[in-house]
Design brief:
With 282 residues, the protein is α/β, with parallel strands linked by helices. It is 42% helix and 19% strand. It has nine helices and twelve strands. The strands form three sheets. It has an eight-stranded parallel beta barrel. It has a two-stranded antiparallel sheet with strand order 5-6. Strands 10-11 form a two-stranded antiparallel sheet. Strand 10 and strand 11 form a beta hairpin. Helix 4 runs parallel beside helix 5 and helix 8 packs parallel to helix 9. The radius of gyration is 18 Å and the shape is globular.
């Protein structure tokens, strides 16, 4: 089980191996928590195991999975979930999240494939989330994903996501960059999308950069700095749901740690401003 004495707060960073040296040396106070991808750390020994144990003592951990394929047609890999449970418990991980998508169909697809926005898909993925939560003995969060082809179905994305959250009784990892990417690519208002989601289900938030292929096409890359419209959507999320722990996602083209800390500073400033507004209203 997660450690009830630890909490996700403030602004967090993804723990990438290229950052471990600088993080261990400086232990920056700007970092409120770290997020680890379990598939990148499970089963490792030696130096990597020692590194992870060190960081788990220094900061609360979130864990964001890649391969569980919650919406996939193949049977859930329950042996993997049992191994995942041991990993989460060993490192006192506060919150585990996965993508509201699938990545297997008779084998790994090496991409995150979106689900159709249908009632049948709601029942299918919600049942698999409930089973995952039962094995892990914890509530998880699922992330709204970016997608690039128009989705079939009898509901819009926000209605689909909300239906899954309610039927599975799980949390939401709100990725505001994905909301922006999908809004541009599919011609909908990401502000309205965020306001359509149940605020009380939002466990934490991701914010990231992307690559603009053209005026009509953006690719979610996590390889650049966050742009102003995405920062604005983060403010929208805070106004909708209150301040939530927020992770800066940066997976490649990693700049020096000091530049990432500058972006964390922007997150913390927006959190402080919204927190001040909440206190004033109260």
């Amino acid at each position: 089980m997660s450690d009830p004495t630890r909490m996700l707060e403030g602004a967090g960073l993804g723990l990438r191996r290229a950052l471990t040296g600088a993080l261990a040396e400086t232990r920056p106070a700007e970092v409120g928590f770290l997020e680890v991808t379990p598939e990148n750390w499970m089963g490792l020994g030696g130096r990597y195991a020692r590194d992870l144990a060190f960081f788990a003592e220094q900061w609360p951990l979130a864990s964001h999975g890649l391969s569980l394929s919650l919406g996939g047609p193949d049977p859930l890999d329950e042996a993997f979930i049992e191994e995942l449970k041991a990993f989460l418990d060993r490192h006192r991980v506060v919150l585990y999240s996965e993508h509201l998508s699938y990545c297997t169909d008779g084998g790994h697809l090496y991409d995150l494939m979106p689900l159709p926005f249908t009632e049948e898909a709601v029942h299918h993925v919600a049942g698999r989330i409930r089973r995952t939560q039962a094995i892990l003995e914890r509530r998880i969060a699922v992330e709204n994903v970016s997608y690039y082809a128009g989705q079939s179905g009898d509901m819009d994305e926000a209605t689909f996501v909300t239906a899954v959250l309610e039927e599975a009784d799980c949390g939401l990892l709100l990725d505001v960059n994905n909301a922006y990417v999908n809004g541009v690519n599919h011609g909908y208002d990401p502000v309205r999308f965020i306001h359509s989601l149940p605020a009380d289900r939002i466990a934490y938030v991701h914010v990231a950069g992307h690559y603009r292929e053209s005026e009509e096409l953006i690719i979610d890359t996590h390889g650049t700095a966050v742009v102003d419209p995405v920062w604005s959507l983060l403010e929208t999320a805070y106004r909708h749901a209150g301040v939530r722990p927020t992770l800066l996602e940066r997976d490649f083209n990693l700049p020096p740690l000091s530049e990432l800390l500058d972006e964390l500073g922007t997150i913390r400033r927006l959190q402080n401003e919204e927190g001040h507004n909440e206190r004033r209203i109260a």
